[in-house]
Amino acid sequence: MEIKVRNVSHRTQAARSAATQEALVGAARALFAARGFGGVGTEAIVRAAGVTRGAMYHQFADKTELFAAVFEAVEIDVAARIGRAVAEAGQTDPIAVMELGANAWLDACADPEVQRIVLLEAPAVLGWERWREIGTRYGMGLVEAVIAHAIEVGRIRPQPVKPLAPWTRAPCTLRGRRIRCPRARSCARSFHN
Fold first, then answer.
1. For the ranges 14-18, 79-83, 142-146, 163-167, which has the lowest average pLDDT?
2. How far apart are the C-alpha atoms of 116 and 129, rounded to whole Å?
3. Phi-psi category of 50—alpha, beta or left, where left has phi over 0 and alpha has psi -120 to 50?
4. DSSP run (H or E) holding 48
5. How much is the pTM?
6. Other Cβ atoms closer than 10 A to 73
């Protein structure tokens, strides 16, 4: 007698949880970018994600925590975009790399999703301190690495990197918050350069 065994795939609880989080963050990201935090109810998010409201609250304490995860996902993507732009340029001078990074940030700020989620909604929804903490976690690492390299190769005089990095990044962040159209982005880039 021949016995056939079905190929049954059992996802672990962790895999199911990660898939639910990914679905929620993806759905919420599109909705928050289009309508803003206040314009999106949790029912719309769970419907778009294809999960239950209970599943959402199992993964995130509330809509604000889901928004924080969305904001973090956008920050990760922006940091990767900046990293790619710098790498593709093939520039080795750290000052030129800083300029490339600043321009890539300003270009990212022209993206309506980045404008809405990162620059407009996140400070209001999460508060200034949490917005800065999450944003700094991703962008500041890039800035600190470039400054450290610039000091190492003699392009910047030796000094502590940690206190200098926020002063280097802040003007770009403030300019990025003001970008609404390609003309404004062009003006910001020419002012930066």
1. 163-167
2. 18
3. left
4. helix 42-49
5. 0.79
6. 16
